[in-house]
Each structure stands twice: as structure tokens, then as C-alpha cells.
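## retry 2 of 3
previous attempt timed out at serialization; input unchanged, resubmitting
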Amino acid sequence: MEDNKNFETLNYKLYLLDRDFKNSKNIVKYIEESQRFYNGDQYPNANYKNMIRITMNLCSFSSKLKAAKIVGTQRYITFTSDTDVDCTALQRFDEYNISKLNEKYEDFHSALNGENNGTEIVYYRWDEDDTTYKGIYKGGLALEHVDPLQFAAANSYIQDVQNQKWVMFWKDEDISAVREMVDCKDKEKAKKIKENIFPDDMVETNVERQYVNHGLVTVFTRFFRIDGEVYYMCSTRTTDLFEYPHAINPYVNKNIDKHMKDIVENWKKGVAEERGYDSYDKVEDYEIDWEDCINQLPKPSPINEEEYEKIKEKFSLYPFAVFRPSKTNGLFYGKSELKELIPIQKGVNYALSMMVKCIENNAYNKIFAK
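## retry succeeded, writing output
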């Protein structure tokens, strides 16, 4: 693992490319303005004193009204079978998960975000620390809302998220939790990775980074497909948290842990010979072609029919759902419903403020005269 503080991971480089694209299309400015107007921050120079600033928040009212209409009809899923199998238990299990995730509120929140930002992204994941209300079993589904400004797609001109070569999102995590995420069999290497994880706002000081256990660090999580299977890699700006990419399918991860080390070493040797290196250790970890290496994994041999069914199944879908109330032609990001309303909102605020200011000026003259 590269120990240079100037080293940048592949995920971070892709983040920089996405940031440049959004700035070139004014997507960042566009979404931030919509969020400000929804939250009532509708004036520039907010600290300007002795200025009457009236806000009649039409943007918030309009977004909430449209979102309420969208979720007004309750969502309901029915399971049926091609055979005579009773699906009642599956139906009840789905209803339990919907209730546990508080989907009624989350659906409204998704619709509201879609109206404001133009694009709403929901991330479904398996939470190993989740427990039932009795605390007997661990593990369950979890739902997270992803800000479109904290999400990147390989091709921002493709609207279907499942047709992307890769997708990525990022968020700030506690540094101690991120260090616990490190997955590396080599203890010495894992120690170096943890030492290279430090808060984003940390400046050069005499304090050694590995002793800093408080603060936030941005974690970039990128999902991609290899041979139809979805894998993911977590990184900070300076280091990858996993020795090898993880698959969503747990059966694939067992195969990776067993064979990947030898495959990577052989791949590095081949690259070193092509480049004329005297040692394959000179091939940096971030240069590894994971697609090439993973394709060399031996296929597991099934023991029985049940195991064969599990092996041949693939987790081929990205765990994201995207909602756009109004699509933009040829662009992944949709159009905010507040775009046409913001100029009207500015006019209403200005007219009301001027009206009150006029009343104030006329009233002060009479007070002073008395």
C-alpha cells in the first residue's frame, strides 16, 4: 500500500472528475440553490443589518404538497407463485420489512427530495448490527438517502442507474469506525493502512496520525460489475480500506479470500516482466486490474443441487433506486420542480418586503412628528 501522503486512490480521482463535470454543468449551484430556497434561506447578504426581509416560503409549500400527492396512494406489493406454493409468509415478511424501515415516511422523504433536487437516490444495504425488537437476531435491511451532490455515475448522460459501468457515493464517517472497516489479512500491511487514515481537516502537526482517534474522514464507496457480479471498494482520499474488492454475494467473497492473493502476485509478476522491473513489488496496489484478476478466480464446484443453485446466482443489480419527478433529456440528473418557482418566490419576497418597508417609513414620520 502506498504510504505517500500525496497518493490519491482511484475512487478519489473519479470523485474529482465527477466534481468537475457537475461544476461545468452548474449542477452543484442548481441543487444548492433549490435546497436553500426550500429551507427558507432566500436572501443574499443575510447579515445585512436594518433590512426588512420577509419570506413567504412558497417553495416549501409547493414541494410538500406535490410529495404528499405522490405518496397519497399506499404502495402495496403482492407475491404470486407459478406453482401452488403459498406466498402468505413471504407477503407478511415483506410487510414486516416495510414497517421496520418506516417506508411510509421514507417514501415521502424520497418524493420531497426528488421535488427539491430533481433527483432522489436511495441506497439499500444489509446492516449486520441491526437487531429485531426482541434483540434475538442480528442483521436486517437498512435504507439511506443519498444527496445527488454526494453521488457519482460513470456516465452522467445515461439515465438508468443499472446501465452504469460503476456508481459511487461518499459520506463522512468517524475515523475510529473507518479504521475498523480495514480488511487485510497481512497484519503489518493492515497497520500501515490504519496509520494512513486521518481526518480530512487535519493539518500537518507534530502529532502522529495513527494516534488521532477523533474527527471525520470522507469514505468513498464505489460499486462496479465484473462478469455480471457486483463488487464494491471503499476508500478514503489516500488509501483503500480493503485488500481486495468485496462482492455483495457472500459466497463469492469466500472464493476471493481463498485464491486472490496468489492471483494478484502472479499478475504483478507479469506486469513487472513487461515493464522490465527487477521486482514485481514495484507494481503499486492501485494499478491492479481487478477485473482481470477476478476473472481468473476458479469456479467453485457445487457439492449438491442446493449449493449449485446458490453458486450460479449473481447479485447483478446495484443497490440503488433513483427517482426523478421530471427527467432532463440525455442527463442522469433530473430537473427540480422549484426551478420555475424560484423567480416567482423572489418577486413575492421583494414585493412584501418593500410594502412593509414603505409602511415603516410612513409610520416613523408620524412618530417623529409627535
